Amino acid sequence: MATIRALVLNCTLKRSPAPSSSEVLGREVLDALAAQGVDGELIRVVDHDVRFGVTTDEGDGDGWPAIRAKMLDARILVIATPIWLGQPSAVTKMVLERLDAELSETDDEGRLLTYGKVAGVAVVGNEDGAHHTIAEVQQALNEVGFTCPAAGATYWVGEALQTVDYLDARPKPDTTDRTTRALALNSAHLARLLAEQPYPPPDARSAAAGSSREPA
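^ NADPH-dependent oxidoreductase, sequence as received from the core. Prediction below:
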């Protein structure tokens, strides 16, 4: 069985050691992945000097290259984000912009380095917008080469106009627990399948398409 590692990027706006509901849910995803035999770690992005940009390294002490190295070493990437004004956090959007650089990074056979990697999303908030936030993040991750599994997201939103955060919503809500476990189960399953059966390189896809054409 292929060894699988996961990386959770906590895209909270709060630096450590401030409490973070995104971190709580992100670590619950890691626990659920551990139950599937997946090792992993969580990084709070704002604790690192990640620069704005769309390259793999913006230079001058940019914190992204070290995070990117961990992402490339992992088979599963999970973006954990709060909702602000119905949107993913600004940190999430910065991370997605940095991942745009992966469209120019390929292996020896022409595949994106993100091909074969699985992406999940974890969302928390005190307002509506979880489905919209998940859709934005999943679309962006898929566009830069990640594969999203079935039921590839988990979320919790509090009652509108109230102040309860996910980290205070104890005991853990059963519905969020179920979606977290589904995210972990399907992500680990898909990651192992892709590790054992990688996507074909672009030339192979072109050759296969060409061989099936009818003669003119």
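The beta strands are 5-10, 39-44, 76-84, 87-88, 118-125, 153-157.
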